[in-house]
Design a protein that fits this description.
The structure holds two protein chains of two kinds. Chain A contains eleven helices and two strands. By secondary structure, chain A is an all-alpha fold. By secondary structure, chain B is of the alpha/beta class. In chain B, 62% of the residues lie in helices and 6% in strands. Chain B has 15 helices and eight strands. Chain B has a four-stranded mixed beta sheet with strand order 3-4-1-5, with no helix packed on it. In chain B, strands 2-6 form a two-stranded parallel ribbon. In chain B, helix 7 runs antiparallel to helix 12. Classes of the chains: A mainly alpha, B alpha/beta. Chains A and B meet through helix 1, helix 3, helix 4, helix 5 and helix 6 of A and helix 1, helix 7, helix 8, helix 9 and helix 10 of B.
């Protein structure tokens, strides 16, 4: 009986601790939501910042984050997916595959600020792109590359060998098998991973500080060579530079909420896409 | 058609190779940008230190120069020279020591006056632009910067003149301390939640908790930093009656939240992989569920749990924005968890923007980046080694 009691007590303590993590998430998200919602209105998301960024909206920062997301996706998706295809379909079980695997795994563990240093050294200075959209997107693309490679690799692993064999038996080439049969079947898992990696792009700050963002831009410039404002950096600036603490706090809360909405929408979208595509079959 | 397939297949090979080489590129460029600092002298570009020709001291290092100009070293005999008081002379002394007539209308006699001044004062040390110091004047040699100056030096004042102090030990130490603090908070919590998730929770409960944990890992670090700045920092300040809440403790609390999802999901995977037969055997022998968890499951999963914890440390160690916003950023050796600390990541993020490209400060920050990279590289290798080993 005492053993049973001890077990019950322990399990209930464990349950309480586990639910505390729910409480933490609720507190963090609730805190940002309820404070941010007061700042959020149509003007806030559609206007330029004014009066030393203490008034007006955060439109350029939202636009900047969207530009970063699109630019990074254009670079990282094809390279990452093809590298994932290489890992699972083309590389034999040899030392080179092990090498690629080790390297991409290590790339996944590199701190984000190191990507910022790399982007500054290589894209901004060495290639001379300067602090620009192209430098920022290339840096962020490298950051999410290991995530995309891994998701693609793992999604392709889930496809049964018998399906590949059936394709070969019908006379299809390796190329036809990979691109006609295997990749379409793995599509839903891959697309989920891609959307999740975009969420990461939207929230990253450290890699973009030295490669693309500007503290403040008076007007929107459409050029690959120009810097831009981005939500995470804007949040950092508004929460740490305290000229007018009350006003900047309010803008910071609004910025945090918009950023969280984008990131959470992408997360939910990833889950939704997966459910939708798997039901369609 | 065949040719098109061949082309795309070679592109696939190229993508795989490029992805593998990126890590090597990162290493190469970090070291390339950082290594320039090691054959430089810790003094501002274009400046020199001139002394009287009878001065016996041949060489000075960065910390000696700092101590001389701050008055901590006031006699040459402390540096192995003759017994003679040290007088410092810098550009700002030019107008007080010499009259306008002495200098000439266009400062044409400046070099001559400086030369005379140095000749007449045996104890002088002059920090001047090289162009004002004639080649006949004795200049003192300054030791080159070495790796140990950065890794073991205790003073971080990279923008101080005349000699930048680039000792990063307090910063490296700060990173280590904050990460250890974070893991001490996150480890017990993470393990308990992982056990609950994989051994105790109902499937429905488990799904909800997993979703919540994924949500936690999706929150951007700058949002954690913002939350920390506005909630955790004042909380720490008021709870412990401190002058300021930006402290190692606040940093560790925020970092533990960031490290938690890594620890939980990897440990839970490892715990769930314990073979069913082992657990059944234990239960069949009369052990309770609780005894089975602590007697069979945890010992079986220990390498996975350890590996997850190490990866959690790596996650905390490399985190930038959250730490930058809540730890207070003073480059000191903290005496308690309530004092501010400064980490490697925060130092790079806050100072790289101001450092001029190719200067000592800029290159030192790249050396710090390389040190950070090496730390996390070792942590990752260690984690995968442990996961495969036991």
């Amino acid at each position: 009986m005492s053993k049973k009691l001890l077990q019950n007590i322990t399990f209930n303590i464990f349950r309480a601790i586990s639910y505390s993590i729910v409480a933490i998430v609720v507190v963090v998200l609730g805190f940002i939501f309820f404070n941010g919602i007061q700042a959020l209105n149509w003007e806030f998301i559609s206007l330029m910042p004014e009066n030393g960024m203490m008034e007006g909206g955060i439109f350029p920062a939202i636009l900047g984050t969207l530009v970063l997301i699109i630019g990074t996706s254009i670079i990282a998706f094809p390279v990452g997916v093809l590298a994932g295809v290489f890992m699972n379909e083309y590389a034999g079980e040899n030392i080179f595959k092990k090498f690629v695997n080790l390297m991409t795994n290590n790339l996944a563990g590199v701190p984000s600020i190191v990507f910022g240093l790399f982007g500054l050294a290589v894209f901004v200075n060495f290639f001379g792109f300067g602090i620009s959209i192209i430098s920022g997107c290339l840096t962020l693309a490298i950051l999410i590359l290991p995530v995309i490679i891994r998701t693609t690799d793992e999604s392709l692993k889930l496809i049964e060998p018998s399906i590949r064999n059936a394709s070969y038996a019908l006379g299809a080439s390796k190329f036809q098998t990979v691109f006609g049969v295997v990749l379409p079947m793995a599509f839903e898992n891959i697309i989920t991973g891609l959307i999740l990696s975009i969420g990461r792009v939207a929230g990253e700050t450290a890699p973009i500080i030295f490669t693309v963002v500007a503290y403040y831009l008076p007007e929107i410039v459409f050029s690959l060579k120009s810097p831009l404002m981005a939500l995470p950096y804007h949040l950092y600036v508004m929460s740490t530079s305290g000229i007018d603490l009350v006003k900047s706090r309010e803008i910071a809360f609004g910025t945090a909420l918009v950023l969280m909405i984008i990131v959470l929408t992408l997360n939910l979208l990833a889950g939704g896409v997966k459910i939708y595509l798997s039901k369609r079959k | 058609m065949r040719i098109k397939e061949k082309i795309i297949e070679s592109i696939i090979y190229a993508c795989g190779t490029v992805s593998a080489l990126i890590v090597l590129f990162i290493v190469f460029f970090l070291f390339k940008e950082g290594s320039g600092v090691f054959n430089k002298k810790p003094i501002e570009e274009g400046y020199t230190l001139a002394v009287n020709k009878f001065n016996l001291v041949e060489k000075l290092d960065a910390s000696q120069i700092k101590k001389i100009f701050e008055g901590e070293i006031s006699n040459w005999n402390e540096l192995g020279g003759t017994y003679d008081s040290i007088y410092t002379f810098t550009l700002s002394d030019v107008e007080t020591k010499f009259t306008a007539e002495q200098l000439g209308e266009n400062f044409e006699f400046l070099n001559q006056r400086i030369a005379e001044y140095i000749d007449n004062n045996t104890g002088v040390i002059a920090y001047l632009p090289r162009k004002y110091v004639d080649s006949t004047i004795t200049t003192i040699d300054i030791s080159n910067i070495e790796f140990k100056d950065i890794a073991l030096g205790k003073e971080w004042y990279p923008t101080s003149t005349p000699s930048p102090q680039i000792g990063a030990l307090p910063i490296i130490w700060g990173s280590i301390l904050v990460s250890i603090g974070a893991i001490m908070l996150a480890f017990p919590l993470g393990i308990i939640i992982a056990i609950y998730l994989s051994e105790i929770a109902h499937p429905f409960e488990k799904n909800i908790l997993k979703t919540i944990i994924e949500l936690l890992s999706g929150i951007p670090s700058v949002v954690y930093g913002f939350f920390g700045l506005i909630v955790i920092v004042p909380l720490v300040k008021n709870t412990f009656q401190l002058d300021m809440g930006e402290s190692m403790l606040a940093g560790s609390i925020i970092l533990s939240l960031i490290a938690l999802p890594t620890i939980i999901s990897l440990s839970a995977d490892s715990i769930a992989s314990t073979p069913r037969e082992l657990k059944d055997a234990s239960l069949a022998l009369g052990a309770t569920h609780l005894q089975t968890i602590f007697g069979i499951t945890i010992p079986y999963a220990r390498s996975g749990i350890l590996s997850a914890t190490i990866l959690g440390v790596g996650r905390a160690f490399g985190e930038t924005m959250a730490v930058l916003m809540v730890t207070g950023n003073s480059a000191i050796f903290p005496e308690s968890i309530f004092q501010p600390v400064r980490t490697i990541t925060a130092t790079i993020a806050s100072e790289l923007g101001e450092a001029s490209t190719g200067g000592i400060h800029y290159e030192t920050l790249f050396v710090l980046g390389a040190i950070l990279f090496c730390f996390t590289f070792i942590i990752n290798l260690l984690a995968s080694f442990i996961a495969n080993r036991f």
